[in-house]
Amino acid sequence: MCRALLCDLRAFFAGTSGNQLTSYRAKCVALVSAPRGMAGPLRAVARCVAGNLVSRQVNVWSRANLGTAAAASHLDDDRKGLFALPGLHEPSDFARLARRAVARSDDLMRRLVSSGPSGFPHRSATAVIDDLDEISDTLCAVVDVAELCRNVHPDLRWVRAAENAYVELQGYVQGLNSNRGLYLALVNAQERHGAELSPEAARVALTLRQDFERGGIHLGGDEHARLEKTAGDVIKLGMAFQQNLSDPKAFGHMDVSWLRLGGVPAGLLSSTAEGGSRDTGFARVPLDQRTVSAVLRYADEPDTRRSVYLAAHSGPEANRAVLDGLLRARHESAKILGFESHAHFATSPLLAEHPDAPRALLERMASECRDRAGEEIEAMLRLAGRDGMDGTVRGWDRSYLIGKARAKACELDAAAVASYFPLERVISGVGALVDRVFGVKLTEVAMEPGENWHAKVRKLRVTSGDRGAGEGQEIGTIYLDLEPRPRKFPHAAHFVIRCSRGVGPDKQRPAVALVCNFGAGSAATLSHSEVETFLHEFGHAMHSVLSDTQYQHLSGTRCAMDMVEVPSHLFEYFAWDPAVLGLLARHRVTGDPMPREMIARLRASKELFGATDLQQQCVFALTDLEVHALDPATLTEGSVSDVAARVQAAHSLMPVEPGTSWELRFGHLVGYASTYYSYPYAKCVAADLWGKFFREDPLAPGAGEALREGMLRHGGAREPGAILRDMLGDGALMTDPVGAAPDPTSMLADLNRGR
Ligand SMILES: [Zn+2]
Q1: What are residue 512's DSSP bridge partners?
Q2: Which of 25, 71, 265, 495 is deepest in the core (most CB within 10 A)?
Q3: What's the pTM?
Q4: Which residues contact 64 (CB under 8 A, 6 or more apart)?
Q5: Which distant-in-sequence residues (6+ apart) come within 8 Å of 432 by Cβ?
Q6: Residue 332 bears catalytic tag
């Protein structure tokens, strides 16, 4: 359900696995609308409070959820408040709105349950689906706003009130997801009267039923009870795993001589010095993700990096038993539900359909970029002045050498590049971009009294442009909360506030918030990487805003998990295109466009270490699949580490460091649980789409129309394979021998383009 989540894998990874992850460029992660298949307690990754809110049962409604202001219709107070939600004017209003949402939902539920088998044919199947969607929309109107509020509001009274409402409604939602009356109403509508459903309503019915049954609602007493227990274990163990990544007692520390920390920026050193002192000559370096990542990235002393790397990647040891238990519980749940393994369970409702499809793709990608990865490692050593020495880049060298080599190879002055990206210019440039590509206008508008949560937040109204009918018609709203502040959600994310859907002859207009943490101050300039992040999030926003589904259950980013990152990865391409940079980049003082040779150097840096990055991503995704396909009967202490080491040895040129267990720090094993491959999938599909529609002229209107009509407007209302085949041709997906995987040819060609 509304698990807004972590976007910015980079920020998360930077900590998660230290140096292995730091150079990964993918940004986002999660959307507030948990996409289909995103079942796990991902929320726990971002914030503990969510950890105890999410259960498998939340899936049905949770992914549905996504928000709405439609519930306003039954509120006494229709005056719009915070986030433009009617009735939300004081923190205490959250409790009142939550109660009303529950009351409204109870009414709908009673109507649905009473119309069960004997209720037909008095109520049509369409009316049943409409009511189910209405329940979800009613609850999400409050839940999604609460989720955003607790992550961004600077006033703790609002945060607490939002958290309380969130907890209360999540509990209620769990009850709905195990309500057999609702389930039977759905089954009856689908089986007895399914022929009368529109294709979209039929898909709502299909996916809702799938989610109900993936929670075991259809099982008999004994099996259901066993599933309840294993599902509870999965939640508890997932939380424990994440807790060990954030608990100083679990991840530990190292005392390091100040003299051996040269190169690490002073600001980072001071934050690591707690417990150490200048007097003793030692800094106490906590082995948390952020600090380890910084030391590995910046410390000039190889022995310092080595010792910190080995210490950090040996634990947290407590996670070894936790991870084993988690894998056992997931496996048992999957078996109860009739699946061969958790990997089979997780992939079955998605584009992939079967774990062998992503497995084959990942193995092929890692193999086909192997030569290039070898060249990159040689280049790393050469550019870092280490050619002729030991020709191996070790785990603790990678991040450091890439940083040095990248700066040297491209001779890019990051500050000079950033001077071409004043925030104002980037925002107006993105407006020009979506106007050219999609024919929609972005206009900054004033907030209504009480609508805003911070003075720095802006509101963009999205309207249809002068192409076709309906010029000037309002389409949706995008809030931009881009600057950092204390206690704010620390990564980049796209939060859904309200989903689009049909309401009688009208449309419920979508609203989203893009939450980032760029620079500081209104005169801020963005780094090129931040521009890329902004575009990534804007890709998600366009998916939400340009969605045109009848049901909010399938709106925008509520498509399959392994499809949801496609628009955002496609949007990242814009950050590297000369024509688009012509819209986005102007010098903050002179107003000059970015010089052509600077653009050329920027582009040359794009895939500088792309093959080693890709191999690393393949290792993560393959390990995620492999450990979730293990038979727990064969699991002995250390066997998960053996799998991770075997995968790395087979598919990466980075050597396995004996005694280390990076998987114990890889929080995405909890959150993604067999679906981490979604990122490599998205990269492949985005490369195909870019090549077919955008590469030649990214600003040609036909390209944007193809994307909007072929993909964005459908959200999850069409089967993902059908969307891709219609857009990219019958050969877009590899289906041999099982499942479906995108063709990596374009992505690998992009990788090799600069060779
Ligand atoms: Zn994303």
Answers
A1: 478, 496
A2: 495
A3: 0.86
A4: 1, 133, 136, 140, 208, 552, 553, 558
A5: 583
A6: no
Q: Which of 369-378, 519-528, 580-589 is least confident?
A: 519-528
Which two structure tokens, joined as six digits, stand for 42? 């991902």
Question: In whole angstroms, what is the distance from residue 615 CA to residue 398 CA?
Answer: 13
Q: Which of 677, 618, 692, 627 is nearest to 650 (CA)?
A: 618
Q: Which of 537, 565, 572, 626 is catalytic?
A: 537
The CATH architecture to which 417-552 belongs is 3-Layer(aba) Sandwich (3.40)
Grouping H, G, I as helix, E, B as strand and the rest as coil, residue 13 is: helix
618 C-alpha to center of ligand 1: Å? Answer: 18
Token output for 497: 């506030």
Which residues lie across from 581 on neighbouring strands? none
Cα(538) to centroid(ligand 1), Å: 9
pLDDT in tens, 372-427: 999 998 888 887 776 655 677 888 988 888 888 777 766 677 788 889 999 999 99
Q: Which residue has the higher pLDDT, 630 or 466?
A: 630
Q: How far away, in angstroms, is 152 Cα from ligand 1 center?
A: 18
Closest CA to 54 of 68, 65, 39, 66: 39
- Alpha-carbon distance of 407 to 297, in angstroms, equals 13
Q: Are strands 511-515 and 474-481 parallel, antiparallel or unpaired?
A: parallel
Residue 48 predicted with pLDDT over 60 = no
Instruction: Provide the residue type at 680 as one letter.
Output: P
Other C-beta atoms lying within 10 Å of the C-beta of residue 262: 12
Measure the CA–CA gap between 664 and 449, rounded to whole angstroms.
Answer: 48
**Rg of the chain taking only CA atoms, in angstroms:** 25
Residue type, 188: N
Judged by DSSP in three states, 574 sits in: helix
- As given in the structure block, the two tokens for residue 65 are 């959820």
461 strand-pairing partners: 443, 477
Q: What is the 3-state secondary structure (H, E, C) of 319-362?
A: HHHHHHHHHHHHHHHHHHCCCCCHHHHHHCCCCCCCCHHHHHHH
What's the token pair of residue 509?
């207009």
Alpha-carbon gap, residue 52 to 56, rounded angstroms: 11
Angle at 213 between CA 329 and CA 225, to 5 degrees: 50
3-class secondary structure, 90 = coil
Q: Give domain limits for the chain.
A: 57-214, 253-312, 417-552
- CA-nearest of 433, 450, 452 to 531 is 433
Residue 178, both tokens: 């195990």
The CATH homologous superfamily of the domain defined by 57-214: Endopeptidase. Chain P; domain 1 (1.20.1050.40)
